[in-house]
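queue> pop job 88
queue> type: inverse folding (structure -> sequence)
queue> payload:
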C-alpha cells in the first residue's frame, strides 16, 4: 500500500517514513501540499497522512481538493490538541481519521492496517460482484431469471453445432446479441462472421448482396462481386429480419441450406460454401407460412434449432442486473437507483424491451446530476403506468387533461366506497378535508 506523508516538520517526516517502511508500506514524503500535487501525477497513493497546520496550504483545503479530485484516497490528519475540533469537522468532509500530537508510529500503523483491510475487502467485493455478473450472463447477455438461464443452457449446447438456428422475439429483445454469443462461443469464432439486415435491401439488391454477381450481370455491375455467403465461407452468417426476404429469393436460400450451393447473379457456374446460418425474425414465421408469406420448406430448414427470446415484461427480475450493466457502460461515475424509482421501473411493461431500457439508462446517465436516479427523472409513460394511464391516453389528450380525468375517477371511486361521505373519502385518500372539498367543487362532482 502506497502512503504519502505531507508535513513541514522534517524530523517527523523522516521518522514516520522509516517506521512505515519497516512495517511493509511503500512511503513517499513531501514538505507541503503544492509539492504533493506534483507527486499525485506520477504515483497512485492509497493514503495521504497530512499535517493540519501548514504555511502554504492548510490541511482542510488540502483535504477538500483531494476528495474532489482523488476521492478514492484515504486521508489521515495530524493535529495538535488545540485543533481537535477542527479535525472532527474535517472528518465530516471525508477524512478517514486523525491523530493528535504527540503520537507513536504504532498508532498510525494501526490505522493504516485498518485501511488496508478496507481496501482488500473492497477489491474482494468488486471481484465477487464481477464473478456474480459473469455467472448470470453469457457473452454479454445479462440476466439470471429462469427463462434466461434456460437460454444460456441452450446456447452452450448448440454453439458448436453446424445446424441452422432461428431466433425469434419481439423488437429489442437482443436477437443480434444472441447470434453474436453463438458465433463467438463456438469453434467458428476465429472464422468469418457476416451480418445482413434483410429488411433494408430491395429484392434485386438483396440477391446481389447475399449471393454476389458476375461482371456485367446487370446495369452498373462493372466488376465481379462476392456475396455475403461467399464471404462467410467457413464461418457464420446472420440473417436479421429473414422474413423480409422475397419469396423468389427464398428458393435460393433454401438451396444453400440443403446443398451448400448457389449461383451468383449472372453466373453459369455453381459456388459451394460451408456456412452456418443463424436467422432472426420479430414475427412468428409459422403464422407467415400459414398466410402464404413465407415458404414452409424454408421455415423448417431454418428452424432446426429454435430459440425464442422472452420479452422483458416476462423476466422483470433481470431489470436490476440490466440497469447495473448499462450504468457501467454509459456512466463515468457511480449512479444509484432509488428504491422508489426501481419500483416504477419494475412495474413498467417495457414495450421496447431491453433496448428501451438501455436507451433510458443511457439518457439518465447523461442528465442525472446528483448521482441518483429517482422517480422524478423517469419518463411520464413510466410514471403514469403506475396509476393505469396508458400511452394511448397521452396520445389522444393533453397531459393535464389525463391527470384531471384520473383525479376525477379516483375521487368518484372514493365517494362510492364511502357512500358519499366526503370526510371519510378524504381520509381514505389521505387528503385534508378542505383539499378534498376544493377538488370536488373544482371538478363539479
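queue> result:
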Amino acid at each position: 500500500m502506497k502512503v504519502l506523508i505531507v508535513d513541514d516538520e522534517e524530523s517527523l517526516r523522516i521518522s514516520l517514513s522509516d517506521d512505515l517502511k519497516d512495517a511493509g508500506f511503500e512511503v513517499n514524503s513531501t514538505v507541503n501540499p503544492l509539492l504533493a500535487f506534483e507527486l499525485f501525477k506520477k504515483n497512485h497513493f492509497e493514503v495521504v497522512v497530512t499535517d493540519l497546520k501548514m504555511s502554504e496550504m492548510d490541511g482542510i483545503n488540502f483535504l477538500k481538493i483531494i476528495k474532489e479530485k482523488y476521492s478514492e484516497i484515504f486521508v489521515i490528519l495530524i493535529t495538535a490538541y488545540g485543533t481537535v475540533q477542527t479535525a472532527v469537522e474535517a472528518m465530516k468532509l471525508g477524512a478517514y481519521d486523525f491523530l493528535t500530537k504527540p503520537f507513536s508510529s504504532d498508532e498510525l500503523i494501526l490505522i493504516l492496517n485498518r485501511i488496508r483491510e478496507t481496501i482488500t475487502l473492497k477489491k474482494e467485493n468488486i471481484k465477487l460482484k464481477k464473478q456474480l455478473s459473469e455467472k448470470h450472463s453469457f457473452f454479454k447477455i445479462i440476466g439470471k431469471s429462469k427463462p434466461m438461464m434456460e437460454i444460456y443452457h441452450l446456447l452452450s449446447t448448440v454453439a458448436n453445432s453446424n445446424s441452422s438456428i432461428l431466433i425469434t422475439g419481439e423488437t429489442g429483445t437482443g436477437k443480434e446479441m444472441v447470434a453474436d454469443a453463438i458465433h463467438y462461443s463456438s469453434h467458428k469464432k476465429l472464422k468469418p462472421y457476416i451480418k445482413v439486415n434483410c429488411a433494408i435491401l430491395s429484392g434485386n439488391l438483396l440477391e446481389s448482396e447475399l449471393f454476389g454477381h458476375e461482371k456485367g450481370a446487370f446495369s452498373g455491375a462493372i466488376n465481379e462481386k462476392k456475396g455475403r455467403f461467399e464471404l462467410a465461407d467457413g464461418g457464420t452468417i446472420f440473417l436479421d429480419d429473414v422474413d423480409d426476404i422475397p419469396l423468389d429469393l427464398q428458393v435460393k436460400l433454401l438451396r444453400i441450406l440443403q446443398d451448400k450451393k448457389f449461383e451468383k447473379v449472372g453466373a453459369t457456374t455453381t459456388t459451394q460454401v460451408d456456412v452456418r446460418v443463424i436467422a432472426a425474425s420479430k414475427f412468428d414465421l409459422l403464422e407467415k407460412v400459414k398466410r402464404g408469406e413465407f415458404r414452409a420448406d424454408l421455415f423448417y430448414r431454418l428452424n432446426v434449432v429454435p430459440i425464442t427470446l422472452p420479452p422483458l415484461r416476462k423476466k422483470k427480475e433481470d431489470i436490476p442486473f440490466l440497469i447495473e450493466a448499462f450504468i457501467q457502460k454509459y456512466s463515468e461515475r457511480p449512479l444509484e437507483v432509488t428504491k422508489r424509482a426501481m419500483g416504477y421501473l419494475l412495474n413498467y411493461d417495457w414495450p421496447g424491451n431491453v433496448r428501451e431500457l438501455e436507451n433510458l439508462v443511457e439518457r439518465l446517465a447523461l442528465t442525472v446530476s446528483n448521482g441518483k436516479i429517482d422517480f422524478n427523472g423517469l419518463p411520464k409513460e413510466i410514471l403514469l403506468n403506475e396509476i393505469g394511464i396508458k400511452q394511448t391516453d397521452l396520445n389522444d389528450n393533453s397531459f393535464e387533461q389525463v391527470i384531471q380525468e384520473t383525479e376525477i375517477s379516483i375521487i368518484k371511486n372514493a365517494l362510492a366506497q364511502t357512500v358519499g361521505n366526503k370526510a371519510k373519502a378524504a381520509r381514505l385518500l389521505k387528503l385534508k378535508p378542505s383539499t378534498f372539498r376544493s377538488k370536488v367543487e373544482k371538478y363539479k362532482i
